[in-house]
Structure to design on (532 residues):
């Protein structure tokens, strides 16, 4: 039998403590998400509504199919920065007329929807997802262009946003712009470079330079409508393909455009009937201990996210601190790599390399469940070839062409983060549980290393180590690394696509696997040189 049998005692004190710890983190996360939902704040949302306008999320809700889910991505972008959390734009996956689309909606309640450095990074991430997964891109535009005080960080890299639109179009991926208000300066190129453009009569304003700039530059006096109004662009310039009466009409037209795309998926359809796991997904709250130094069995996670809790484990007796095997999630076949005891040894690295090659031979997407402190160090392991074996695994991950999805469940430290397909290795999607932590190494280890180096330098100079100062330095560094390792900080840096409730993991994996299947799923046999 390949059906996993859970050994978790859901009635134990340990399980209850784990649930309490996870719920506390989820409560903190809920506070952060509520801040995102208010956009620019009650004052500016109310002013926006008085103008007869819908909010960004209301526009998205109208755009997607009734009762269909919207998977918002990177909602905590800019967390911890000087900018509003959410970065004045909402992005995510939604189904429009039965077609999975990437939707990007400016939030005009935040500084008029202007783009700051985090807005740009978030939009570029959305563009990457659309291109990699062959998803039609719907831009819901209302933006004042670049946030001018930060232009030095926006202007040069911002050109990629427009390049992406043309590359999507050149790849045969439709781009659709619905213009709800101002689309000024660089923002004018979003409709300018989209395949289909909908404008709203007396609402859309699209121009490279508004009336004040035109007067300063040329001396010409003009008003908004004749310079860049929706009616002018629909009847004179030809930039507008459709002229809507109001916002609801613009959304209606946008939905009809998607319906007429004749869009077909090029990837595999679900290969099996969807069967729910044998164990309650709510139990995922109690699997990961509050203290990540305490190990847990990743099979308990797998048993609650895969169809029928059915898992064919690969090499179960070899490299036991990495669990690998085959399963199905919402009907989609996947290969799973899940850290068991944290540390990766040579056997684990070699096992992962072979497994990744096999997944590529069978065109099977890979799911990485992170809980690793990195590759093992020490004389015995260095002499045994841990560097070249870890390099083999990273080589395989780097050159694998089947889609990858990563979920940071627990720790994700050091080169183990790389070998398990961290952000730098371009997984199609990467999510984190509230329990996750990621850094070069654990806070105590990092502070200890710096202390050892500092002590050695002091003693080499003939000095005497100040123990009190050393202890203070270690405490300060530990606090800094702890603060920079938590999911909200990392998500704010766009190092993941969202911090998710563990109970939603299976649903989100199903949504992303379905989106991935819009593009062909093809493996490779072309890897770099494996050092043996």
């Amino acid at each position: 039998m390949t059906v996993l049998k859970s050994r978790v005692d859901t009635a134990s004190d340990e399980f209850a403590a784990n649930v309490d710890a996870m719920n506390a983190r989820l409560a903190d996360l809920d506070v952060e998400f509520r801040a995102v939902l208010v956009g620019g704040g009650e004052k500016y949302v109310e002013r926006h509504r008085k103008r007869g306008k819908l909010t960004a999320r209301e526009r998205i809700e109208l755009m997607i199919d009734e009762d269909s889910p919207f998977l918002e991505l990177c909602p905590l972008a800019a967390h911890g920065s000087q900018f509003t959390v959410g970065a004045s734009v909402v992005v995510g996956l939604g189904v429009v007329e039965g077609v999975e689309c990437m939707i990007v909606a400016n939030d005009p309640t935040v500084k008029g929807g202007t783009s700051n450095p985090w807005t740009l990074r978030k939009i570029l991430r959305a563009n990457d997802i659309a291109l990699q997964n062959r998803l039609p891109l719907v831009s819901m535009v209302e933006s004042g262009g670049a946030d001018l005080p930060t232009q030095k960080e926006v202007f040069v890299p911002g050109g990629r946003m427009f390049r992406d639109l043309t590359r999507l179009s050149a790849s045969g991926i439709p781009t659709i712009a619905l213009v709800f208000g101002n689309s000024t300066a660089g923002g004018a190129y979003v409709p300018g470079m989209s395949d289909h453009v909908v404008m709203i009569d007396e609402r859309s304003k699209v121009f490279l330079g508004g009336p004040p700039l035109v007067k300063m530059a040329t001396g010409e006096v003009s008003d908004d409508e004749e310079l860049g109004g929706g009616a002018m662009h629909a009847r004179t310039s030809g930039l507008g393909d459709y002229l809507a009466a109001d916002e609801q009409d613009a959304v209606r037209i946008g939905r009809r455009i998607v319906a007429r795309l004749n869009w077909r998926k090029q990837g595999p359809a679900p290969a099996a009937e969807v069967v729910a796991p044998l164990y309650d997904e709510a139990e995922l709250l109690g699997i990961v201990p509050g203290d990540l130094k305490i190990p847990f069995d990743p099979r308990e996670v797998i048993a609650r996210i895969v169809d029928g809790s059915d898992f064919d484990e690969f090499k179960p007796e070899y490299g036991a601190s990495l669990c690998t095997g085959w399963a199905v999630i919402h009907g989609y076949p996947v290969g799973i790599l899940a850290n068991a005891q944290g540390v990766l040894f040579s056997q684990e690295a070699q096992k992962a390399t072979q497994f990744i090659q096999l997944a590529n031979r069978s065109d099977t997407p890979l799911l990485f469940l992170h809980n690793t402190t990195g590759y093992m160090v020490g004389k015995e392991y260095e002499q045994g070839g841990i560097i070249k074996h870890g390099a083999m695994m990273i080589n395989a991950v780097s050159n694998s062409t089947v889609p990858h999805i990563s979920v940071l469940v627990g720790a994700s430290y050091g080169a183990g983060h790389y070998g398990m397909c961290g952000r730098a290795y371009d997984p199609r999607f990467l999510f984190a549980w509230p329990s996750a932590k990621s850094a070069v190494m654990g806070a105590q280890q990092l502070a200890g290393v710096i202390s050892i180096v500092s002590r050695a330098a002091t003693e080499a100079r003939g000095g005497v180590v100040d123990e009190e100062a050393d202890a203070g330095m270690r405490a300060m560094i530990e606090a800094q690394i702890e603060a920079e390792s938590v999911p909200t900080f990392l998500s704010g840096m766009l190092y993941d696509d969202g911090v998710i409730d563990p109970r939603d993991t299976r649903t989100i994996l199903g949504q992303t696997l379905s989106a991935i299947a819009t593009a062909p799923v093809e493996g490779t046999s072309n890897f770099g040189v494996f050092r043996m």
